[in-house]
Amino acid sequence: METLAYFLLSFCLSAFIYVFYRRSRYRGLRIPPGSLGLPLIGETLQLISAYKSENPEPFMDERIKRFGLVFTSHVLGEPTVFSADPETNRFILQNEGRLFDCDYPSSISNLLGKHSLLLMKGALHKRMHSLTMSFANYSIIKDHLLVHMDRLIRFNLNSWSDRVFLLDEAKKITFDLTMKQLMSVDPGEWTESLRKEYILLIDGFFTVPFFSTTYRRAIKARTKVAEALGLVVRERRKEGEVGMGKKDMLAALLGAEDGFSDDQIVDFFVALLVAGYETTSIIMTLAVKFLTENPLALAQVKEEHDQIRLKKGESEAIEWSEYKSMHFTQCVINETLRMANIIGGIFRRAMTDINIKGYTIPKGWKVFASFRAVHLDNDHFKDARTFNPWRWQNSSGTCPPNVFTPFGGGPRLCPGYELARVELSVFIHYVVTHVSWVPAEKDKLIYFPTTRTLKRYPIIVCPRNRAQDN
Ligand code: HEM
Ligand SMILES: *[C@@H]1O[C@H](CO)[C@@H](O)[C@H](O)[C@H]1NC(C)=O
Ligand SMILES: *[C@@H]1O[C@H](CO)[C@@H](O)[C@H](O)[C@H]1NC(C)=O
Ligand SMILES: *[C@@H]1O[C@H](CO)[C@@H](O)[C@H](O)[C@H]1NC(C)=O
């Protein structure tokens, strides 16, 4: 009883403070129009229920219709300005570190580690971001990573038989490739046991941290992952010059002029694993799902890849020039990124009062730049809510750069943008040339807490006989 009374009292009190603060503090400012919803919880429940459904669009659509492309809501405990306007989104991305910055809750930053790229700011962020960029740039992919990518994807595909969960297989591939890229480790027992811990760590990002066993387990798993990675780092440091000959991220970090500590390197690696893992594996799964649902597009993709295989031996790896010749596949990839919106947008915090579009975003407020709303807007893409890879065929140059932003932009532009594209292309190549498949059961897409398919996309596969097909 006592706790209930206490709860009610504190609830009323906070509700009162809340209403008061809404009235008084911003009276002078012209904040973007909108509805703050209920006290404390605001519109959080509407947001979550929309994004847990197959069709989350109404949440944004209704508010855009009532208030315009920039509006205010109150979600996840704070007033938040939403933008579905490409110009505003670009302004937010470009002014990272000057007018806006990232601000992760401590539950997330504890999982990431204090030296994570995602948490870095200022000059250090700039330097580490460009180091990361240089380690996923096209010349590294072309000269070093592509051949491993080819081998790892082929190796994984050879183990498919009967019924597989496509998302699980994509995750194995992505993890193995990242381990290769970071520290030249090949898949084996060690990587599989590391991956098991790593999965527990990832689960921690998507749970409410208070009183949660999942979260505590994730923190423990982080320690284990960090220990395992730390061991490799120490061994390579001992090897000295011998290890430097390896063309991987670890060699670059160990060889850097102003030396990084083991802890810094480990946190840095965890950040790369976290940022590249879910995103790339989900986009691989969704590309296949979208193609399955669009037989015409699938037939055209098959034709493109059969032509490539026709000109080379069955066991020869894909080369850079062949990747570059996959024109229709690139259209499919852009269209998949546009429709899927794995990262639906980004949260930032206003570092000062910011004037934009005739409104003021008060200092300390959260903003959400929605990429999804722009990508699915008929004003920017004709018939925006249907999958149509052909729309990209004649579009070179017609789509302004701030309209299509699946990889973000500005100082935090995704360093993995090219890597993800190449990985996806090679994956599609081997899937369409090597197997035939049908969905094993109906699966659906949901968007909260992240975009994914509910059942990990189970499919029934059998080897494809290209000679007979044609
Ligand atoms: C289809 C796959 C991917 C998508 C859609 C994607 C999307 C994004 C987006 C939108 C951001 C910006 C986040 C922000 O501004 O707060 C980002 C950042 C980042 N991504 Fe990716 N990403 C993908 C794959 C990868 C891969 C494969 C890697 C690994 C190399 C990677 C590493 C990173 C890192 C380290 C950051 C943080 C950059 C920073 O804060 O400076 N991503 N990604
Ligand atoms: C890619 O990064 C390497 C260093 O890792 C650098 O030598 C090279 O010039 C970069 N290439 C491009 C095209 O940026
Ligand atoms: C795909 O989108 C990128 C921008 O992210 C663009 O540079 C590229 O030209 C597009 N590809 C095709 C085939 O339209
Ligand atoms: C693209 O342009 C070519 C000629 O430039 C034309 O034949 C083709 O029909 C166009 N495709 C689309 C989808 O508009």
UniProtKB/TrEMBL annotation:
Keyword terms: Heme, Iron, Membrane, Metal-binding, Monooxygenase, Oxidoreductase, Transmembrane, Transmembrane helix
Transmembrane segments: 6-21
Annotated compartments: Membrane
GO biological process: brassinosteroid biosynthetic process; brassinosteroid homeostasis; sterol metabolic process
Molecular-function annotations in GO: heme binding; iron ion binding; monooxygenase activity; oxidoreductase activity, acting on paired donors, with incorporation or reduction of molecular oxygen
Highest taxon listed in the record's lineage: Eukaryota
Gene3D superfamilies, alphabetized: Cytochrome P450
SUPFAM superfamilies per record: Cytochrome P450
InterPro entries per UniProt: Cyt_P450, Cyt_P450_CS, Cyt_P450_E_grp-I, Cyt_P450_sf
Membrane disposition: Single-pass membrane protein
Pathway: Plant hormone biosynthesis; brassinosteroid biosynthesis; Steroid biosynthesis; Hormone biosynthesis
A GO cellular-component term linked to this record: membrane
Residues bound to heme: 414
Required cofactor names: heme
Matches recorded under Pfam families: p450
Family: Belongs to the cytochrome P450 family.
Designated name of the protein: Cytochrome P450 90A1
Organism encoding this protein: Erythroxylum novogranatense
